[in-house]
Amino acid sequence: MYLQPNFCRPHAISFDLDDTLYDNGPVIDAAEAVLMDWIRNQCPKGEAHDMSYWTAYKRQVQAIQPELEHDVTLWRYETLKAGFEALSLNTTVSAKLATDGVDLFLVERNKINVPKETKTLLAKLSTCFPLVVITNGNADVEKIGLKPFFSHVLSAGIDGRAKPHGDLFQRAQTLLNMDSQCILHVGDHWQADIIGANQAGFQSCWLNMDRQQQADTLHKPTVEISHLAELVDLLIHQQRDATL
After folding, report:
1. Please, what CATH class does the domain formed by 26-109 belong to?
2. Which residue out of 16, 18, 71, 193 is catalytically annotated?
3. CATH for the stretch 2-23+114-242
4. I need a surface site. Which of 3, 29, 33, 69 has the fewest CB within 10 A?
5. Exposed / middle / buried, residue 6 (Cβ in 10 Å: 0-12, 13-18, 19+)
6. With contact defined as beta carbons under 8 Å apart, do 125 and 228 qualify?
7. What's the rounded Cα separation, in Å, for the pair 222 and 227?
């Protein structure tokens, strides 16, 4: 664990979701595979059976509507709709298929096995601090069993631009009604979580499980940990010991 000298015990904690509270990569890969199988059953055209076809349309849609990068669900819908329309399917059919495809993906995307250790940690922290989700993704905290631990859930697209933009951080600060330096943001992504939190005036905690080198020297996390359990040691156990 690493602490900056200016670290102070927070009054609230915000958490990133994907790859911070659980391993998101395998879940997304599985959801993408299910979606592709579904597309193959819906579309007789062979070109749509290749992931590269949809990747090209994802980039094309982003180039036309760059604001979609702040809403990954809407971005997926527009990608599917554009790809289906390019297969000479009419707008109504394409929109219906795109909606069905997104719905299917979200069902699979939320089949997340959150580690028991994560839930135990959140339960402990939630007895001492208000906890808030700040996520760029589209995981549903209720469906994955994490809703009871959080007072607020803020998602890019619905609640503002994606991290590292300050929209979600500012919204969290308003909801918590406290100074930004009283909030510790925990996340795994250097740019979205650490730079985003720092720029918003939050304290930042980098979950660096792979012990990577810091990406630059202009930004430093207030706290660096390699395992979430270190948060309990830092914020609860050490504080309790200090009062004895």
Report:
1. mainly alpha
2. 16
3. 3.40.50.1000
4. 29
5. exposed
6. no
7. 15
* pLDDT of the chain, 244 residues: tens digit per residue: 889 998 999 999 999 999 999 999 999 999 999 999 999 999 877 788 889 999 999 999 999 999 999 999 999 999 999 999 999 889 999 999 999 999 999 999 999 999 999 999 999 999 999 999 999 999 999 999 999 999 999 999 999 999 999 999 999 999 999 999 999 999 999 999 999 999 999 999 999 998 887 766 678 999 999 999 999 999 986 654 444 3
Residues in the chain: 244
Q: Tokens 């219906």 map to which residue?
A: 96
Q: Is residue 18 among the annotated active site residues?
A: no
Residue 126's alpha-carbon distances to 119, 150, 193, in angstroms, are: 10, 8, 21
Token pair belonging to 166: 């300050």
Q: Where are the domains of the chain?
A: 2-23+114-242, 26-109
pTM, whole model, 2 decimals? Answer: 0.93
The residue with tokens 């909030």 is 183
